[in-house]
Amino acid sequence: ATKFFAVGARVPHIAARLAFDCAPVGEFMGLPVNGRRIVFAENVFYRFEGGLVRAVWSVIDKAAIEAHLGA
After folding, report:
1. 11 in helix, strand or coil?
2. Phi/psi of residue 67, each to 5°?
3. Which pLDDT belongs to residue 32?
4. What gap in Å lies between CA 68 and CA 33, rounded to an integer?
5. Which of 67, 18, 10 shows the shortest CA–CA distance to 41?
6. Which residues have CB under 8 Å from 36's CB, separation 6+?
7. Rounded to whole angstroms, how far apart are CA atoms 55 and 48?
8. What is the distance between the alpha carbons of residues 18 and 20, in angstroms, rounded to a whole number?
9. Residue closest to 33 by CA, chosen among 21, 41, 43, 24
């Protein structure tokens, strides 16, 4: 499951926080998840132009995922 929270906007940018609760198969970000449940958040920034997303910047706390997996 993914939840989207818009946390700020100033044209042409939108900042959002995405909350994930998932069980990826195989590897995720180089980590051997192999179907185990992980819960994490992503901070993402979008730049729009002409009604389309033209650029995306993303920050994911990989260390938190590693700690969650006990890696």
Report:
1. coil
2. -65, -40
3. 92
4. 10
5. 18
6. 23, 69
7. 7
8. 6
9. 24
Instruction: For the chain, give the percent of residues with pLDDT over 70.
Output: 93
**pTM of the shown model:** 0.75
Q: How far apart (Å, rounded) are the C-alpha atoms in residues 42 and 4?
A: 10
Measured CA to CA, the distance from residue 57 to residue 48 in angstroms comes to 12
Across the chain, the runs of DSSP E, i.e. the strands, are: 2-10, 13-22, 27-28, 31-32, 38-49, 52-60
**How far is 14 from 20, CA to CA, in rounded Å?**
19
Confidence of residue 8 (pLDDT cuts 50, 70, 90): confident
C-alpha 4 chain-centroid distance: 10
Under a CB-based contact definition with an 8 Å cutoff, are residues 61 and 44 in contact?
A: no
